[in-house]
Automatic annotation (TrEMBL):
Location in or out of the cell: Cell membrane
Domain of life of the native organism: Bacteria
Organism the protein comes from: uncultured Aureispira sp
Keywords from the UniProt entry: Cell membrane, Membrane, Transmembrane, Transmembrane helix, Transport
Membrane topology summary: Multi-pass membrane protein
A Pfam family per the record: MFS_3
Protein name as annotated: MFS permease
GO CC term, one of those recorded: plasma membrane
Main location: membrane
């Protein structure tokens, strides 16, 4: 393997299958979320109703995350992901029927959508730690940064195409027919997934009492300050810095660009993230990773402020595109931190703690955005959120020396040295 081989992780056939699975699932999920957002806002014309969508997902994300992590660490990852995929398919079938125009204006439809979103939050609570744990069993540890770049790129590419496709199909076919494409993507994910072999369970404490297992997972995250710092920084930044939940309002009422413009706005951040993460595969960001993380999240906050103040469609698109670039850098660094500093037997629980705080902050951020938009106006809410992100980054940079000095290259060099010494010791 070449030292700077940008395709190192892709040379593993199962990792390529893993990327296809992740792409199909995230494409379907992001497209479905946009379809739900558009349908709910069409029915209610109320920004708070968009925030409630996030709230319906965050309740199971917080309440079940630790249990999901325990279960992932106890079970075989590939088969567990198959069950999650089947549950996702069942959810989408229900949404397909409920978005039928016959029921579109029924008073109970809105509450049924909220209920299905809640069920989807349960499914996603298990999908995230399972995907995180499965990837670590497919590629060797020294390739985690490279694998994280490609995995994040796969996520972002699907996040580019999913919302854009949703905007196009909503405009041309309607929400009901759009759900058929989502169902097809889930079937493709299932087909790719069954081609990956079952993996060994690396947890030596199978059958460990659940509360003891959960306590160890939380304790590990709390004691591993670099993981705790990355989770906390991202949680607060996402909680206050996201404006995605308000995009239907910007597209409809502020910029006046309709469903097609909404699809472009929704895809712009993901396009930026995909572009930068493809570049990261060629130009690794291992050195001075902590400083790069801080600067990237600071830049994200600035982009949110520009977007909030913009009345030009293309300036808004550019601001969201740049927010995707900065978020893409931070995403690769955060994923690499979690992969490098988490032992195999703790991956499910650590990923679940991360999902509970960071993942749920996306939904809480959606609720916060909807609530503050209702309280102080849409533009003011976005500017307020971006400003809070800037304050968070400055405070983290001032008080966290470990974050400022974080360097992946030193960690990887140490890992290679230890493996070399271990190998030499085994030579007869």
């Amino acid at each position: 393997m070449q030292k700077n081989d940008p395709y190192a992780a892709l040379r593993y056939p199962e990792f390529r299958l893993f990327l296809l699975v992740r792409f199909a699932l995230v494409f379907a999920w992001s497209m479905q979320f946009v379809v739900i957002e558009w349908e709910v806002y069409r029915m209610t014309k109320d920004p708070l109703s968009l925030g409630i969508i996030g709230l319906m997902e965050v309740v199971p994300a917080i309440s079940l995350a630790l249990f999901a992590g325990h279960l992932v660490d106890q079970k075989e990852k590939r088969n567990l992901l198959i069950l999650c995929t089947l549950a996702f398919f069942a959810l989408s079938v229900a949404l397909f029927f409920i978005t039928n125009p016959i029921y579109a204006n029924d008073s109970s439809t809105l509450y049924s959508i909220y209920g299905l979103v809640f069920f989807g939050g349960i499914v996603r609570t298990f999908i995230n730690p399972t995907l995180f744990s499965l990837m670590a069993l497919i590629v060797p540890k020294e390739l985690y940064p490279n694998a994280a770049s490609w995995s994040s790129s796969s996520w972002q590419m699907s996040a580019v195409l999913g919302p854009a496709m949703a905007g196009f199909t909503i405009f041309s076919l309607g929400t009901h027919t759009s759900m058929l494409l989502i169902l097809g993507c889930i079937v493709l994910a299932f087909v790719f997934l069954i081609q990956i072999k079952s993996k060994a369970i690396l947890n030596p404490k199978i059958g460990e009492p659940i509360f003891q297992s959960l306590r160890e997972g939380v304790k590990f995250v709390y004691q591993t300050k670099i993981i705790l710092g990355a989770i906390t920084l991202d949680m607060i930044a996402v909680l206050f810095g996201g404006a995605i939940a308000l995009l239907p309002i910007f597209a409809t009422d502020i910029l006046g660009v309709g469903s097609e413009g909404f699809g472009i706005l929704r895809a712009a951040p993901a396009v930026g993230s995909f572009v930068i993460m493809f570049a990261v595969a060629y130009f690794p960001i291992n050195k001075h990773a902590g400083l790069k993380l801080l600067f990237s999240i600071f830049g994200f906050g600035v982009c949110m402020i520009v977007f909030g103040l913009s009345t030009s469609f293309w300036l808004s698109v550019f601001a969201l595109f740049m927010s995707g670039i900065t978020d893409g850098v931070s995403m690769v660094i955060r994923q690499t931190i979690l992969q490098l500093y988490t032992p195999d037997n703790m991956r499910g629980r650590v990923s679940s703690v991360n999902s509970m705080f960071v993942g749920s902050s996306n939904e809480l951020g959606a609720f916060e955005s909807g609530f503050t938009a209702k309280l102080m106006g849409t533009v003011t809410a976005v500017v307020f959120g971006g400003s809070m992100t800037l304050i968070t980054v400055v405070l983290t940079g001032l008080f966290s020396k470990q974050m400022r000095t974080l360097d992946f290259q030193e960690e990887l060099n140490q890992e290679v040295k230890e493996e070399t010494e271990h190998g030499e010791h085994l030579v007869p």
